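FW: tagging you since you asked about this chain on Friday. Here's the raw sequence from the shared folder, copied in full. Didn't touch anything.
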Amino acid sequence: MKFRAKVLCALASGLTMGLPTIGSALDYGIYDARALAMGGASVAVAKAQQAQFYNPALLAFYDGREEDTRNGRVYLPIAVAQLKDNASDNYDKINDALDIDLQRAADSFNAAPSTQRAELVASLASDLRTSLEDIDDSSIDGDAFVGFSISEPGHRAGGAFYFGVRAVGGGKATLEDADFDLLDDYVEAMRFVASAGAEGAVHPELFNEDGSLINPSERIASTARVASLGFAEWGLSFSKEFKLWGQHFALGATPKLMRVDVFSENLTYSNTSLNYSEDSRTHYAANIDLGAAIDLGSYVRLALASKDLAPQDYEAGSGLVVTTEARTRLGLAFERKWLSLALDYDLHENESVGSEAASQDLSLGMELRPIKYLSLRGGWRSDQAGNREDQLSMGLGLQVGRIVADLGYSSGGDIKGGGLQFGWIF
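HL: got it, structure written out here
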C-alpha cells in the first residue's frame, strides 16, 4: 500500500489501530450511551450504574438495601465513539486506491507504450491529484471508549468497578505543493504522448534515458503526522453519604491503575511503516477521581467532580511529551420521578494533547420516563472555548425484565457520535 492509502488508513482507522491523539483536547469524556444522549451532562445526574465514570459520589444517592432491591448492574459492552464526518470520506478514498492504479498504469505503459495506456496514466494522475487535494491539511478527530462495569448500590453508600480503554484524537496529512505540480506534469506529459504532440507538454525529466516513464512514487515527498494516546484504566469506586445542614451530602473516590500508550511518527511516501515497537512508549501510572454532591431540598442536586487529579507526563519514542491535567466539572440537576434535567460546566479549559485546540464544555440534558421501562433523552453541548460547533443529541433506554439497553446519537458540524450498551440487573 503506497503513501496515500497508508496515510488515509492511519487517519480513518487510527482509533482501532493505535488509540490516536492529534485531533481533540482531552476533555472530561463521555463514557456511556446515556450521557452521550444527554449532551454529556452527567456530574449531578448520573445513575448509580454510571457514577463511577463521572462522579463517584452519586453512588451513595440510593435508597434501600441491595439484597432487597436487587439493582446491581453489569454492563458489557459499553461503546461510545465520536468522529469527524471526513473519516468515512477518507475511507472511501482508500478504497479507490488511485495511487496503486497509477503505478500499475505506468508499469503497463512502460511494458507496451500505446495511446490508450498513455491516456490512462494521465487520467489516473489527474484523479489522484483531485483526491489528494481533498485530504490536504485535513485531520480526523475522534474520541472513543470501550469497556465494561459492575455497580452495586447500597443504602446511602455504594461501590463499582470498571475497566475501559479510551482513545482520543486522530492524525493529519500535509501534502507538498511540489507533489501537486509533479502530478500536473505527468498529466501533461502523458496527454502529449496520447495526442501525438497536439496537447500537453513534453516534460523529458519524467522519462529515463531509455524512454521509459519514471514511476511517480519515486518523486513524491508528502508527509503525514500520526500520533496516539490510549488509556486503559482499572477503576474501583466507592462513596458514602453524610448529613450536612440537614441535607444529603456524599463524597466519592475512584482510585485507578492506568496503562498509557503514547505514539508519534512522521510518515513519508518512501517510509510508510507504522513502527510501534520503536516509536511507542508504554507507561504505567496510578491516579484518582474525586467527587462530591449535595441535595438542595427534595429535587435539586449540586455536584462537583474532578478526573485524573494528579498531573502526569507521558513521553513517546519520538520525543513527544503529553501532559494530562486534572479536569474539573460542576453539575446541577433537577430530579423528579418522571423527569431529570441537568447542566454541566467545565470550570477551566481542557488543554490540548497534541496540536489541536483546547475545549471547555457547557452541557444541557433531559430525560423523560413516561413509563417504568422506557427513558427518552435529549441534550445539547457547546464548546465555550469556541473551537467546536454545538452538538445536539438524543437517545433512549429500555428495560425488558432484567435486561437493559441504552442507545445514544449526537451530531453537530462535521462531528457525529454514537453509543450503545447492554446490561443486566442482578
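FW: The longest strand covers residues 223-244.
HL: agreed, and The longest helix spans residues 115-135.
FW: great, closing this out.
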